[in-house]
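Quick one: 3-hydroxyisobutyryl-CoA hydrolase from Kitasatospora aburaviensis, structure tokens please.
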Amino acid sequence: MSAEVQVYRDGGVGRIVLDRPRALNSLTHGMITAVREALDAWAADDAVGAVVLTGAGERGLCAGADIRAIHDDAKAGGAGSRAFFADEYGLNALVARYPKPYVAVMDGITMGGGVGLSAHGSVRIVTERSVVAMPETRIGLVPDVGGSRLLAHAPGELGTHLGLTSGSMGPGDALLCGFADHFVPSAAVPALLAALAAVPAGPDTAVTAAAVAAAVAAHTAPAPAAALAAQREWIDACYAADTVEEITERLLGSGVPEAKQAAEELADRSPTMLKVTLAALRRAAGQSTLAQTLVQEYRVSCAALAHHDLVEGIRAQVVDKDRNPRWSPAALVEVDDRAVAAFFEPPAGGDLRLG
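--- reply ---
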């Protein structure tokens, strides 16, 4: 087990606490392995009726993968990151098919890999402090951990907007977009965790699931309004376009201040990764299973490791923090369809295998 993950029994539930608070609980390979080992062990343990995922500290569940480590590894060839992605995406698939209730408390910042560990669970909780996002285009990457599937199935074109701009969701928007199920005030979370510890364990998962649902229902409250709901008209109209260039034109021509701001945000993103993200979201919308999407994301992520913009994007945002990435190519018009299609080809080491 990793020292950065607390794994223990609390009554009838197995508790997983991501415990790297100074780094916003960002994920290392060791943390992925520790969570996987715990879930595998508890799946066949009748003494564990459900699993509860939380994050240590006051700032959030998980800010995503340790992207500085990915930056350094990509510069060295990317072998470590490819192995990390394979294990991370395999864990995301396990969360989605877990045979027992899997309760994720998405309190505070929940981004990237944090979404992968929570938003595929069977019981997904947000609080008034939740900030949920797939921010990959900011760093020259593409939404992964099954996030492209979640975005692709959000109402209308909300997911396209969020995926391309790396926009964040408050609790109301996370509920609207299908990233969460329940709103629980942060002050009520300790009482909820105590109630969950009292749920019955045993081989009858239906009984446990009913007890979990009752405990959650007893602590829910009306959720804040979804800010994006009022923006649907221009978002749906602009992001329904077939290309990033046309999306940008529609945003700039809409006359809506928020649309103009979105266009300015797109202008700061990697042109290559914007086009790959749009293609990935359109493909994910037609895929019937999460596993298909994870295989696609693995292809894209492996290709990104070898692309200039990933290292450059992390450099600009995290390493040097100059916020001035020098993308290559630098303009949308310079990214051709063949370059985009290459991201969806199987990597040299073979496709992701989800057993």
